[in-house]
Amino acid sequence: MSVNVVNDERAFVGYRSSDRTLPDDANDDDGTVDLVTVVNQFAQKIEIVDATIDDGSKYFGEPNVPDGSFEAGNSKTVTADPNLSAGEDVTVAVTVRVEGAGVSAEVFGDSDTRRFQVAQDDGTASLVRFNGKGTINVGNQSQNGDTVEVDVYRIPNGESAEDPSVNKEESVEVEAGKNQGFDGWVVAIGVDGDIYQHPGWDADACEFSSSGAGDGVVVGEAPSC
User: Fold this and answer.
1) Under a CB-based contact definition with an 8 Å cutoff, are residues 96 and 108 in contact?
2) What domains sit in the chain, N to C, each tagged with a CATH number?
3) Which residues pair with 91 in a beta bridge?
4) Burial grade of 101 (CB within 10 A; 0-12, 13-18, 19 or more)
5) So what's the pLDDT on residue 129?
6) How far apart are CA 159 and CA 155, in angstroms?
7) Of residues 153, 130, 111, the one with CA closest to residue 7
8) Measured distance CA(78)–CA(48) in Å, rounded
9) DSSP 3-state of 57
10) Is the dihedral of CA 20, 21, 23, 28 positive or negative?
11) Fewer CB in a 10 Å sphere around the end CB: N or C, the chain?
């Protein structure tokens, strides 16, 4: 049985794609970007046997086709290694082919509802992102996997505002593009001579006004209290 898939709720294969912005939408574990998620709407197991990037192929490596079959109602995602320059924005279309016992289907990505955009940030975003008080992420997509030396400015958990004692730990190695947790509360990170301060740190009061996530703010001098 061979099925020509149509783009409606009765389709045997669900096809999900959406616009992506790098590096924010890159996968944390390997730096790839999700292209297409395939949902099995057959009544039996299927597997993705092939994926082809029809539009935008020069900006990506070969698609990573997930191994193994998956049950009805489940999904698997095709990814690829991106290779975009800062500020680039490309239109992408991906065709996938699935097979199961006695069935096959091919879903073409060259329709208005399935094409999507992948954009690379222009590099003006902060080099350091704070995920709460104790976790940081340094670097961008082009640096993923590299080791970066940073200076860490932190205070112990729960240290009072009257005596926050900001301590500096020099030349700490972290992996670019990966979340890195630290003991204590991280006030700022020094990278290549620049100081990126936690957006919730109140330098005048020497305390956190908020502990949420956010991009580091470049400041003229290291925090001290």
Assistant:
1) no
2) 2-120 (2.60.40.10), 128-219 (no CATH)
3) 117
4) exposed
5) 84
6) 7
7) 111
8) 9
9) helix
10) negative
11) N
